[in-house]
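Before the break, one more example. Copy the sequence into your notebook; we will annotate it together after we see the structure.
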Amino acid sequence: MNLAQPLNSFEKKLHSFTFLEKIELYVIPILVAAFIIYNFIDFTKQTAPSSITVLKKSYIDSYAFLKQLQAFAQKQSLTLLNIKQNGLKFTLQMEGDFSDIMQFILFCEHYESVNTLYDFKLTSHNGNVALWIDFELASNMYEAHKYEELLTLLSRLQNPFQQQLSTHNETLKINAIVNDEVLINDVWLKKDDAFLAYKVFEIHRHFVILEKPNGEQYVLHLMKE
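Here is what the structure looks like once it is written out:
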């Protein structure tokens, strides 16, 4: 294809343009290209380095952790039955009140970081809750959830094992539980004491189990102000 003739014709036409027309011919395409680049290309994604989150190393002292674990268990009146350690991995057996057991699980899961809780099992044992838990302390520090908010959520949980027992007689009310004594309807009672048609079967921190002569049991909860 011979392009000489069209090119010569274009060159003559170009020379016939005024100075203003020549400026428009060159400037308008540049402005259009600049407009497209400015509105449709995000230079920040190409030039700005991607943000990198550097996790802080968590240097866990196993001895210090076990001391704090023991102190927490004693404060919550929990009984530590068995403990097994392999590096940062721990397997524990614990027994106590349901609400205290749940707080202990939260303690293990959020000690110094967000730890890995592989498995846990709850069973009922002599009116208490027995816990088997398997977890590993984190080697890096992660931002944990707000501890107090989680405690508030735990306080709303109900002991699933108490659902196996009948509800208590509404005429009976616990006003206080101090050590191994309970104040029911203004009468102080100990374990195995008889009261009306009941016997005090077990006394816990937040509730009492009463038993009738036929063996039927009732759960009586501590009144909240």
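Residues 76 and 112 are 20 Å apart (CA to CA). The longest strand covers residues 116-125. Try to locate both features in your own notes.
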